[in-house]
Amino acid sequence: MIRAEHIVKSFDGRVVLNDISADFAPGITNLIIGQSGSGKTVLLKSLVGLHKIDSGNIYYNDVCFNRLPFKERKAIREEVGMIFQGGALLDSSNVEENVRLPLDLFTTMSMSEKRDRVNFCLKRVNLGDVNHLYPAEISGGMIKRVAIARAIVLNPKYLFCDEPNSGLDPMTSVLIDNLIQEITQEYNITTIINTHDMNSVMEIGEHIIFIHQGQKWWEGTKHDILHADNRELNDFVFASAMAKRAREVEM
Ligand SMILES: Nc1ncnc2c1ncn2[C@@H]1O[C@H](COP(=O)(O)OP(=O)(O)OP(=O)(O)O)[C@@H](O)[C@H]1O
């Protein structure tokens, strides 16, 4: 469980997160949505400790993360998996080396133990026999799977995903969304996903926070969204004519 309490963050006196509070429960997919520039990435980075917040508190279970000394914060960070936009694999390392990297950095496992763990994680994301391929030799969807395998290799308690299906076709996006949801449930991970993708919202939006101009404007589930009486949310979610018609039909 991650809890944000009254988060305020500004840059050069300009407030970009204004008093945001939210609970992110484990075992479900928590989505942060909002227009470009609304503050989603700043919120995600603040929650993970990459931005120092001006005020408020961030709890990881019962521990106040933002007030911890550096060493203890680092220990919690080792329980965090991250999936970055574009995958962020090392181009000069092959798939196995990319997935193994957190094990090399943070564990004292033997090489054969590491190889077993890497193979287990690659299998979990439905990738086989790609260990020796380089990122340039695999598809965008495979890159995301490798990024997911790397994010789970240390058995994280918390998983942060920044636009996990950016650049993917709609079918591959659904597969990646479903994979993240399955892994979240299977290992009871607290997962927070930053997304613009309305298909993701309707597919895996078990808990959704809508950010508007730096404020939490609406909160609910994918089922609530269809009936939400919130103009900014509706303008954002049902922006296209097709989405508007789909909503009318559903209503
Ligand atoms: N390091 C920074 N320094 C100054 N301003 C920043 C910084 N990072 C973000 N901002 C500002 O904070 C606001 C929110 O940015 P943020 O990246 O969180 O938006 P977003 O909702 O993630 O947008 P997008 O969907 O386009 O990625 C923007 O106005 C942005 O210019």
Automatic annotation (TrEMBL):
PROSITE patterns (UniProt xref): ABC_TRANSPORTER_1 (PS00211), ABC_TRANSPORTER_2 (PS50893)
Keyword terms of this UniProt record: ATP-binding, Nucleotide-binding, Transport
Molecular function (Gene Ontology), one example: ATP binding
InterPro entries noted in UniProt: AAA+_ATPase, ABC_transporter-like_ATP-bd, ABC_transporter-like_CS, P-loop_NTPase
Pfam families the record matches: ABC_tran
ABC transporter domain mapped to chain residues: 2-238
Protein name, as recorded: ATP-binding cassette domain-containing protein
Provenance organism: Alistipes hominis
